[in-house]
Amino acid sequence: MRQFIALITALTLLAPPTVPAAPGDDLPDIGSPADSILSREKELQIGRSIFRSLVATERVMSDPEIQEYVQDVGMKLAAQAQDGDFRFTFFVVNDPAINAFALPGGYIGVHSGLLLATGSESELAGVLAHEISHVTQRHISRAVFANQRSSILTMAAMLGAILLGAVGGSGDAITGAIAAAQGVAAQQQINFTRANEYEADRVGVGVLAAAGFDPMGMPVFFETLARQTGPLASQAPEFLRTHPVTVNRIAETRERAAALPRPDVRDAAGYATTRARIRVLTSPTPEKALEFFLGEQQNPRQAGDIGTEYGIALARMELGQYREARALFQGLLATNSGVIPFHTGLAGAELALGNREAAFATYEKAMDLFPRNTPLTVRYAEALLGAGQPKKAHAILLDLLNNVPPTAEQVRLIALAASAAGDTADAYYYMAELHLIRGDVVMAADQLRLALSIPGLDSVQKARFTSRLAEIQEWLDREQRSRRQQTSAGKLQ
């Protein structure tokens, strides 16, 4: 998987921009004829396709708390990087390597290993700001324009080969993709890839500061990255290393950060709790996770650290030590009532101990304090389903769905709740939405036809299902016409 992610990044940032950026330009002119080669809509289609294939490998972490935290930090940065021209999706890949990558269309992936390697929230934000800048500076479309001999189809074929190798474990597919990429990448293109990295640094530092983070977070983490790669990194071809870090690059980024205001920034509680969750979820065993956090607890610098205490509580939950976990969550909640994972952690411990009334009281209090919070609503709905209350689970998930852009896991859960509640038509409708999120338009249409076949539909359901099916059918018809036109054009050439 490490090689797979590294290669995707290398390929998507492989070719050069039309003109290398001047060293002093903070905001280079990104207007170019590249739009005629790879439009933003096409970038989004390519990125969405790659992301869905990544999800299919089951290496994208679906934990709602982790997902929401990374998306929140990313969107805080993205709001300062652009005027709504790009739609960003941030996600975590379960991989111990220290890496991050940008896909076409605003899909930004962060390795779990990178999150654990950062020393502060500003360091994490610095990495995300860098990757966001790759997207907003249109490096991919500019690359395709600068090297029109590498068609979009060729790039897609190489990416597809890598995905196939990653999912199926085929080394031959990955080796073939490397050979194809090397055939495209001349020394000049490698140099321009370096220019892209410098450009993303320059723009990213400004984004980092504008979003209220410490701009020194970026150069500090680059120094960490340089220490982690070490001397052996020089043995690999440079363009296969997704973020080649040089002394000059670190020095330039540090100089730019030093010229910007440095606010007194404190890490959000979500940074500590997210790293703790990742540590527990990616540890070989709960015992190893507990051993790590107990060791951290003995470090004087970690005294009173909520991430350490939360990690111990999570590990004890995994080990079935529910009473100890409950006491820890109660202590955390007593001094940090604004941290949602402490509410859900306590409720989960009460449920595990058989105290359903206390658990639901904790969930309901939290729902009043933090209405329509996605991880909280998902955890409460899971508890309701487990307690045989699917109608209530369906109701709270539907309220969330109607007000907050849903994740695939969220839609899957509401489909389960609707089915368990006997709302069969709605369950089919939600499954259609899930298939759309996953990119299977034909299956989505089939699910909607099943929904429409259920007897006793009310007028609202019938109108909603019919309208959605018409939208999908229109899209399918348009795609078929486009393919026929492309086939006809190909025959004429």
Largest sheet, in brief, is: 3 strands, mixed
Total discrete domains: 2
Name the shape in a single word.
flat
Strand order of the largest sheet: 1-3-2
Q: Tell me the fraction of residues in β-strands, as a range.
A: under 5%
Q: Nearest-angstrom radius of gyration?
A: 24 Å
Describe the overall structure:
It is a single chain. By secondary structure, the protein is mainly α. The protein has 2 domains: 2-258, no CATH class; 269-370, Alpha Horseshoe (Serine Threonine Protein Phosphatase 5, Tetratricopeptide repeat), CATH 1.25.40.10. 68% of the residues lie in helices and 3% in strands. It is built from 23 helices and 3 strands. It has helices at 2-12, 40-56, 64-81, 112-117, 121-136, 139-146, 152-168, 171-184, 187-210, 217-229, 247-258, 269-282, 286-297, 306-318, 322-335, 340-352, 356-369, 374-386, 390-401, 408-420, 424-438, 441-453, 459-492, and strands at 89-93, 100-103, 107-111. A 3-stranded mixed β-sheet has the order 1-3-2, with helices on both faces. Helix 3 packs across helix 9 (187-210). The two termini are 39 Å apart. Mean pLDDT is 81; it is low at 1-33, 160-192 and 232-240.
